[in-house]
Design brief:
Largest sheet: 10 strands, mixed
Number of helices: 8
Order of helices and strands: EHEEHEEEHHEEEHEEHEEEHEHEEEEE
CATH topology of the largest domain: Pseudouridine synthase
Oligomer: single chain
Number of strands: 20
Number of domains: 2
Shape: elongated
Helix content: 10-25%
Strand content: 35-45%
CATH superfamily of the largest domain: Pseudouridine synthase
Length: about 300
Amino acid sequence: MTIGSGLLLIDKPEGWTSHDVVAKLRGIAGTRRVGHAGTLDPMATGLLVIGVNNATKLLTFIVGESKTYTGTIRLGASTLTDDRESEYISTASAEEVAAISDDQIAVEIAALTGEIMQVPASVSAIKVNGERAYAKVRGGDEVKLQARAVTVSRFVQVGPVRRVTENGQSFIDLDVIIDCSSGTYIRALARDLGRALGVGGHLTALRRTRVGGYAIEQGQQLADLSQDTLQLVSNSDAARAQFAARELTPQDAIDIRHGKRIAVGEISPAPVVAVQADAPIAAFDETGALIAMLTKAGSTLKSLVVFQEEAK
């Protein structure tokens, strides 16, 4: 059986790396051309967007889209990885934790909302002098990453705070929903919230529920997948769900395939709010097939990537 091209929307289970998922799907789909748009830590669950065959070309554009997460932040202790996957490196006293009010938590959450400068989690896949930061940290090196601009458009607490005691240590647990730009570290938000409150903080649960225009409700369970049950979202359907669209005349399609530029023409708005100022435009031929991803170049449109003709 030959597998076509398209996106797979996977509900990643806890304990799997994003690479683990890609490796499994390469085996199921029978192709090496499988990639993902945006890493999820092993602890995290939720939506992982997978590209198969020439849909891997779409991943470049999807990876920069905004995302939604639900999670649980624990205040009262800091960890090396900013989540529950490593040991405590500092803890607050019961008195310090008890002194934090619900109002203080709300104020500091608000301070971490909007356009902020964030120092990524040190145990991350960011490269430092050609080496992954997590490898340097686990090798005993001190890593200082540069702060970078991210946008947290929504950071809200869901339900009441929970004041708990475990092994004699006092904590505050709070459930949150976060909408953010690509490149935002939710672990770092937990760390920074705890730091601002003076008691430390880390993430104990994380679930990604949205990537751009794709939602967790569309996700397939990894355990249920076989070559017969793979539900591929075609390149055309995937692009229409996410990007602004330009309908091409037959001559436009020929010109694009030959590397020529075309007039800007009429562009339909994207179904979701674009987070990139120069967001790409999906170009479709008269049959509705995805031909290319375009970008504005002055008074014309030029191709960023051109797709092979889709099988009918």
